[in-house]
Design a protein that fits this description.
Order of helices and strands: HHHHHEEHEHEEHHHHHHHHH
Structural class: alpha+beta
Number of helices: 16
Shape: globular
Number of domains: 2
Largest sheet: 5 strands, mixed
Distance between the termini: 12 Å
């Protein structure tokens, strides 16, 4: 997949609103191995001593977090660090978010709570829940396309969330399957061992699929009143809401994660902690609309898949939310003036710049 500069991240990437537990974990791992992390911080406003209290890491920007993780991956020996570090995470390390999930009525609602409030953990991946024939799928994607970082972040999140789910439901819990949108690394065999499930590489999206059988299971500490109070505390810790100038990028990121499931404006507004009316108004003020953004995301992803994969046209149609390939062909013709097969033929050997 083509890359684009980190500087093209959304405006939110320049805001110091991330308390990245992953950075703190990498610093501690470096300390265990006797590796100095001081060089990672050259030119940054934060320093290693700012992370001295693991319960209260400093606020950093998205760019700073990416820079520190990149430096850590270059400095640490070996490979598969995301899988290894994720496997060390416990329920306690999810803090308030873990408690919010424990008090949900059932596991399905716990998952949705975890996705909704994931930003309070300093997550660098945008997450969404979509339907899957087997149950539901949690999709994940970075705001920027940084292949080395994205593989590490996905490994760490998938591995740590497996621990979280087992802490809530028991050691028998397992993912139905794991799909990864990148090629298998040299240490690919470690995935199956660490995750104990089918792992598929070079897929259209990165996601974990969870079977229906788990979703209705009650949470061990289910309590409606406690769940409501904890949700209020989680909401208070959420990073600042996107300003109107950044709302377009925020909606586009969520659409990219959910495009196969025909996302609704109502659901996206809830994820952004806005009313549907407010979201419509902000998009209008930015000179666009939900339908225009959805069509734009569908067109962009369809063009990428046609140019960069060998997936059949009907699979591309499904990936961007069309159940009927004929409807997809008509829509694609309207967007681009060409049929999908013509686009694929013309893009042979070319490189698309991904936003």
């Amino acid at each position: 997949m083509p890359t684009f500069p980190l500087e093209l991240a959304s405006a939110a990437s320049a805001q110091a609103d991330i308390r990245s537990g992953i950075v703190d974990t990498l610093l501690r791992r470096a300390g265990e191995l006797g590796i100095s992390s001081a060089p990672w911080f050259n030119g940054l406003r934060v320093q290693p001593q700012d992370f001295a209290n693991p319960n209260q890491p400093p606020y950093i920007t998205y760019r700073e977090a990416c820079r520190l993780i990149q430096c850590a991956l270059e400095a640490l020996p070996g490979s598969g660090h995301g899988l290894a570090l994720g496997s060390r995470q416990s329920l306690a390390e999810f803090g308030l978010l873990g408690l919010a999930m424990l008090t949900a009525p059932n596991f399905g609602e716990a998952l949705r709570t975890g996705i909704r409030f994931a930003p309070i953990t300093g997550a660098l991946l945008d997450l969404a829940v979509v339907d899957d024939p087997a149950g539901i799928a949690v999709t994940m994607r970075m705001r920027t396309h940084e292949p080395a970082l994205e593989a590490f972040l996905c490994e760490e999140l998938i591995s740590s969330c497996l621990n979280l789910c087992r802490a809530m439901l028991g050691e028998d819990f397992r993912y139905e399957r794991v799909e990864l949108a990148y090629s298998p690394p040299a240490y690919a065999a470690q995935y199956a061992t660490a995750l104990n499930t089918e792992v598929l590489f070079n897929r259209l999206d990165t996601r974990v699929v969870i079977a229906h059988q788990w979703l209705s299971l009650p949470m061990p500490a289910a309590n409606p009143e406690s769940a409501h109070q904890i949700a209020l505390l989680c909401h208070a810790q959420m990073p600042s809401e996107q300003p109107p100038a950044g709302i377009v990028a925020a909606v586009e990121r969520r659409l990219e994660l959910q495009v196969a499931g025909v996302p609704r404006l109502t659901d996206l507004a809830a994820e952004l902690h806005l009313t549907e009316r407010t979201l419509r108004r902000q998009l209008s003020a930015a000179g666009t609309s939900f339908r225009a953004l959805l069509d734009g995301v569908r067109e962009r992803i369809a063009c990428e898949l046609l140019a960069e994969s060998t997936a059949p046209i009907d699979q591309v149609a499904t990936a961007v939310g069309f159940s009927d390939v004929r409807d997809f062909r008509r829509a694609f013709k309207r967007w681009t003036g060409r049929l999908p097969v013509e686009m694929r033929r013309q893009c042979t050997g070319c490189v698309l710049i991904r936003r």
